[in-house]
Amino acid sequence: MPSTHYSSWFAHQLQGLINRGQRNLTAQPSHRFVLFGEDFSGGRMVTDLLRQVVTDTRYGSLPSTWTMEPLLEQRHFFPLRHIQRHGLACPDYLFGFKLSAADLIKTHGMSEPSRFMAILYDQGYKVIHLRRRDLMRHGIAVLKAQQPGSRHINPTALIAILKKLDEQRISEAAIVAQVPHLTITYETDLLDPNVHDTVAQRLCRFLSLQQRKRVQYSIKLVHQRLSDLIANYDEVHTALENSDYAYVLTEASAKLVI
C-alpha cells in the first residue's frame, strides 16, 4: 500500500528507481557516450563515421544498422531512467544518443542542466560536443529544413533563428564546461572529408575503441557564396546589416564539397 503521505511515497519510488538504475549499469553497453549539440551540427556525419571505422577487440565492427536517437526530445518524468532503458535495450557494445541544451532546459525544465550532464558522465557516458562556428550557414540550414526546396529566406525568421542558436551556444558551453569532453567542430572536422581519418582516430581514442580501417579521401573544396544559397540575398543582406547579427555576413565560411 502506498503511504498516505504522497510525498513520502513519491520519494520512496524515486529512490527505488535510482537504486535499480545503479544496479543496471553493469548490464549497459560497455562503451557509452552522449552526442551533445544542436541540429545540423554534424550528428549524422559523426554517426556515419563511427559506423564505418569503429571496432572492438571482442565484438568486432558495428553493424550497418547502428544509429543514435535524440532520446530527450520529448518530456520524460524520469529522463535518466529513460536513457538507461534504451541503453539496456541496445544490442551493440557502443551506445550513444543525441542531446541538446534545449532538451534539458526547455523540454525538461532543468534549472541546472550541467548537473544532469555531470550525472551522465559519472555513470560512464563520455561527452562529445558538436560545435558549429558558422552561425549564418547554421541558421540557413535550419530554415531550409523547415521549407524544403525553397531558396527564399524570410529575413525576420532568419534573425530569430540566429538569436536562438546564439543563446543555445552559450548554454551548451556552460553545460559541457563542467565535464571532460571532446569537441568536434563542423567546419574544421566534418565539412572537409579529407580530415575524416584524423577525426576518426580522435573519436576512437576518446571512446577507447579501435579503428578498423582508414578513411581516405581526396576531394577538392570550392567556394560557395551565400548568394548561391539564398534567392533573395539582397533583402536578407540589408536586414542583417541593420540588426545585431551584421557580423555573420563576413564570418560565414565559403567551403563546399564537390
From TrEMBL:
InterPro entries: P-loop_NTPase. It comes from the Bacteria. SUPFAM superfamilies: P-loop containing nucleoside triphosphate hydrolases. This is Uncharacterized protein. It comes from Adonisia turfae CCMR0082.
